[in-house]
Amino acid sequence: MASAAEQLASNLNFSTFAKATDLKKRLWFTLAALLVYRLGTHIPLPGLNPEAYAAAFRGQSGGILGLFNMFSGGAVERMAIFALGIMPYISASIIVQLMTSVVPALENLKKEGEQGRKIINQYTRYGTVILGALQAYGISAGLESGAGLVNDPGIFFRISTVVSLLGGTMFLMWLGEQITSRGIGNGISLIIFAGIAAGLPTAISGTLELGRTGALSTGLILAVIIVAILVIMLIVFVERAQRRLLIQYPKRQVGNRMFQGDTSHLPLKLNTAGVIPAIFASSLLLLPATAAGFAGTTVLPSWATGIIAALGHGQPLYMLLYGCLIAFFAFFYTAIVFNPKDTADNLKKHGGFVPGIRPGERTAEYIDFVLTRITVVGAAYLVVVCILPEMLIAQTGVPLALGGTSLLIVVSVTLDTVAQIQGHLIAQQYEGLIKKSKLRGGKRGR
């Protein structure tokens, strides 16, 4: 029999959405905030030569700069004030998460609840400032080293560049927090989503133009569309998949009342690590090509040039290392963000237990065993989703706008946002039912 929440969800329709005044305000606020972000990606840095920089960027677009340009919505290609994007904040968040597992003080803060999370978030902001300032200064020094990229190089240009780029990152961090609290969905994820989705129209029109000129056959374009649909279906299925462990709670007596035992579930996501393994693997593999581009292939020895060529997109060595790194980071990051021992201790503290498993250490071992098995499936899924578009690009030459990493981000953020919208609509229906029941109760009282 369907639960009350499932019955309410099945009754959602356009009329329900039309009555959701608060939800519509949140949606309009989110759209306005994303519009501000898109406008900022077109404001260039002061003192930069746009034509010379555009020519220099075309020679580096295949390296890590191309990955950052995709996440920043083209801001790196234009060297706008939002060129750093939200990546320093994401890097700082990952570093702080890793440190909470090795630094006892941070681990204790994590266990303190809401107050501890606020302090950890503050440390993350401090880390964002440090990382953003270092990256901005490196960008300013790199721009000055290029011939004709900067109109008036010097200390003033470096200071203005650091202030502009760091200010852009801090503004995006604040904007993401405002979207999360006053809008709909996760603000940071939606900013990345908007940056990736901004490149879709150009990429689709470019692919159709190649088909019109005969560079790509119609059958090949249709095959690419079918593969993209199948990959999206796979992402939707796996991202919503869970392994639910049955949890039982014994009977308990509170005062003179006896409460019956209850059952619940501990949901374990099939892909606990999310998109982090793909981002880490892509960044590491693109670093050699980016470094070689800045240094120049003429100054490198022949063996280094051969390795860099073997690590190019579509090469067998690149595919092999890419898949291995994704699988490694899937297990590594899952071990960082999910601690079976803490989960088992919390269950024991509240009287919950897995049927047939002793509470405490045996429960932690069982949860770790189950988590390891489903992470194998999750890692294989990430490898397939990320490698398949790369193989398609290598074999057909189709300029796919959505690679594995970006496709994973777009679909995951869309699912999360739709789920939050549905949650707001269900909450509104609950409020409407409560108001109706109160009115009926008042009439009966009279």
Q: What fraction of residues sit in β-strands?
A: under 5%
Helix content: over 70%
Instruction: Give the name of the CATH architecture of the largest domain.
Output: Orthogonal Bundle
Number of helices: 19
Task: Assign the CATH topology of the largest domain.
Answer: Preprotein translocase SecY subunit
**How is the biggest beta sheet arranged?**
2 strands, antiparallel
Radius of gyration: 25 Å
Please, what is the average pLDDT?
Answer: 79
CATH superfamily assignment of the largest domain? Answer: SecY subunit domain
Query: What distance lies between the first and last C-alpha atoms, to the nearest angstrom?
Result: 36 Å
Strand order of the largest sheet: 1-4
Approximate shape: globular
- Poorly predicted residue ranges: 1-9
Order of secondary-structure elements:
HHHHHHHHHHHHHEEEEHHHHHH
Helix-and-strand structural type: mainly alpha
CATH class of the largest domain equals Mainly Alpha
Secondary structure tally: strands = 4
Domains counted in the coordinates: how many? 2
Note the topology.
Layout: H1 4-10, H2 14-19, H3 21-40, H4 50-58, H5 64-71, H6 75-78, H7 87-100, H8 104-110, H9 114-145, H10 155-182, H11 187-198, H12 200-213, H13 218-240, E1 242-249, E2 252-254, E3 257-259, E4 262-269, H14 276-295, H15 302-310, H16 316-337, H17 340-349, H18 361-396, H19 404-445
Antiparallel strand pairs: 1-4, 2-3
